[in-house]
Amino acid sequence: MHELVRKTLEIYLRERRVLGHSDFPPSALPHLNEKNAVFVTLYFGGKVIASQGRINCKKENTLYECVDLALACLTDPRFSENLKNPDLIDQIHIRVDTFAPSSRQILRNISELNVRDEGIIFLSQNLGKLSVILPNMIKENPTSEAYFELAKQKAGITTELTNADYVIYGLKTTVSSDF
Questions:
Q1: pLDDT averaged over the chain?
Q2: Per-residue burial over 72-107, b = 16 or more CB atoms within 10 Å of its CB, e = otherwise
Q3: What structural domains and CATH numbers belong to the chain?
Q4: Which of 39, 59, 135, 168 has the fewest CB atoms below 10 angstroms from its CB?
């Protein structure tokens, strides 16, 4: 999938057109028959410069979802701040996480999170907040509590919460990356 993202970005930035069906890399074609959620993360100089994703697939299949989110990364303000010259697109690194709805499980407690294999979806309907921390995104001291605190921070929650305020899901993804 990372090859699809790279090709999508290269064609859009160099030719100002959206990737067509004939442009799809052969490795991406099996995703035409899937409907999985996708998260695209772009790195430059060792840091995240863009990310886009959805917890449910909105397009007709995983492949189109990936193309849509790759293009959406171009609207992330960090992208234009960090990649001033589009010719540097060859130097970005790409991570694509995909997951089926069945790969997320409600956790009764954050301590149930397996930090080696899972990320989390944090959802607070009471507060209207949602955040996602993908697997292996915390490199130093990856504890379940660190994932929970980062998810709260990302959702903009600074107050104390009760268990009735939120639901957390453990999330296993399939990762495709060029690093």
A1: 95
A2: ebbebeebeebbeeeeebeebbbbbbbbeeebbeeb
A3: 2-99 (3.30.700.20), 101-173 (3.30.1490)
A4: 59
Cα distances from 101 to residues 3, 6, 38, 74, 174, in angstroms, run 23, 25, 11, 26, 12
3-state secondary structure of 142: coil
Q: Identify whether the C-beta of residue 170 lies closer than 8 Å to the C-beta of residue 144.
A: no
Least confident of 80-89, 99-108, 169-178: 80-89
pLDDT at 117 over 90: yes
Contact call for residues 114 and 170 (beta carbons, < 8 A): yes
For residue 33, give both structure tokens: 């028959």
Q: Which residues pair with 122 in a beta bridge?
A: 131, 168
